[in-house]
Amino acid sequence: MARVCVIGAGAAGLCAARHLLVEPCVSQVDVLEQATQLGGTWVYTETVGYDDFGLPIHTSMYKSLRTNLPKEIMGFPDFPVPESEKSYLPAKDMLAFLQLYADKHNVTPYIKFKHHVQLVKPKAGPNGELWDVSYKDLSTGVSETREYDYVFVCNGHYNTPFIPNIPFLIPLNSDVMHSHDYRVPEIFTGKRVLVVGAGPSGMDIALEVAGVAHRVLLSHHLSEKPRSVFPENMLQKPDVVQLDGNTAIFKDGTEEEVDVVFLCTGYLYNFPFLHESCGIVVEENCVEPLYKHLVNVRHPSMCLVGVPYYVCAFSMFDLQVRYYVRSMNGSFSLPSSEEMLHHWEQEKLQRAARGYTRRQAHMMGPDQGGYYSELSLESGAAPLPAVLTAVHNDSSGKFLHNLPSYRRDRYRLIDDNNFDRYYSSLAS
Ligand code: FAD
């Protein structure tokens, strides 16, 4: 009987616990969560910087955020988002949904809140490999180490800002901020704002900031320019290559005066608690070696849930967890470590041959349907419905070309074929 540690009580950790708790081969499930409540990313707070326990603020939610995907594909396969008037929900509704999910599956009693995982190390056990997980109880300050058979890493991937290498950019001084610290647009009132990056957050935030700023320059290298009709004070620019005082110099040689540089440049995968003996390396935002973007190849009794992006997140978490649990209970066998490593190396080569950069090692987008099929075919886990992928792709196209208004209406599937180009042109 297996003792399992789940690190994090966001959507991925809750989903892991939901399946582990009903799994006969599992005897113990501990969900270690550093925060005071479940929900992870979806817990909005006005605070930026550090929390009451001196830990970096986890969430990157801003006050006005509404999902960029319709609720029809935001739920779990066995627990859809309840019917409501709107398709694109505010963060508080997503948080309430996760609470409902945890209640429905009686997960909350298994969450140890205010438990900050500090170190995870593999060790030899009498019948194979075990894990030592060390954590601090933030209420008492007492640290403890417990032994587990399996570790599910569900610590989230949208909280460590990626700061690009732009000459003379001094990270995070008063005139440079990252979207991780963005909450409300008013801080930019009357300013000339340079938004760097046109991923989902960059475009959304640039539009919101344009409502109060003197001017917004949206600098990006999407190969296909968004066709959305933006406000007059919002202009698109190519990559910014240098900052010289208040002057921003762009790739096409043009220069503009700016008051604030606002980095919407995304996030870094970060596993500060994994000891190097865990064998997981993150370079250029590629987490490796992972089999199927999930299983730690060097120590297969550890999985990292939620690494792929541009996916139907909650459904993918569910499939990844069901896949992995089936390997635990003997429904299928994972390949040997050598075979898994070979598979991962091959996948990297195939991605490179298709023009993906190393930073895009875990990007799915148009590949997501194939990824979901692979997971269910190999493990025998029930597949995800193909319509999820179709809606995700369609909604991404709407985001790109109808940003100011696409969330106003109830979602309807109209395939406009823009999505492939959006994914492939996204920031490298
Ligand atoms: P998280 O929600 O980040 O949860 C991780 C948990 O782990 C947290 O509770 C954290 O406190 C805990 N933790 C971390 N480290 C430790 C530690 N050392 N010890 C103990 N606990 C720890 N996805 C969508 O599908 N649709 C959207 O519209 C959408 N919008 C987004 C908007 C923004 C601004 C951001 C940042 C993300 C958005 N996402 C969206 C992605 C979203 O993050 C995922 O959908 C999903 O909620 C991630 O869940 P998670 O469990 O992997 O991570």
What share of the residues does DSSP label as strand, in percent? 15-25%
Q: Any idea what the radius of gyration is?
A: 22 Å
Number of strands: 20
The termini sit apart by 44 Å
| Number of H- or I-type helical stretches | 8
What is the strand arrangement across the widest sheet? 3-2-1-7-20
Structural class: alpha/beta
Coarse shape: globular
Observed structural traits:
FAD/NAD-bd_sf; 8 helices; 5-stranded parallel sheet; 22% strand; 428 residues; signal; NADP; globular; Flavin-containing monooxygenase; disordered C terminus; single chain; alpha/beta; binds flavin-adenine dinucleotide
In short:
The chain has 428 residues and is an alpha/beta fold. Helices cover 24% and strands 22% of the residues.
Question: How would you characterize the overall build of this protein?
Answer:
The chain is α/β, with parallel strands linked by helices. It has eight helices and 20 strands. The strands form six sheets. The protein has a five-stranded parallel β-sheet, covered by helices on one side. It has a five-stranded parallel β-sheet with strand order 8-15-9-10-11, with helices on one face. A three-stranded antiparallel β-sheet has the order 4-5-6, with no helix packed on it. α1 runs parallel beside α4 and α4 packs parallel to α6. The chain is globular. The termini are far apart. The C terminus is likely disordered. Flavin-adenine dinucleotide (FAD) binds next to α1 and β4.
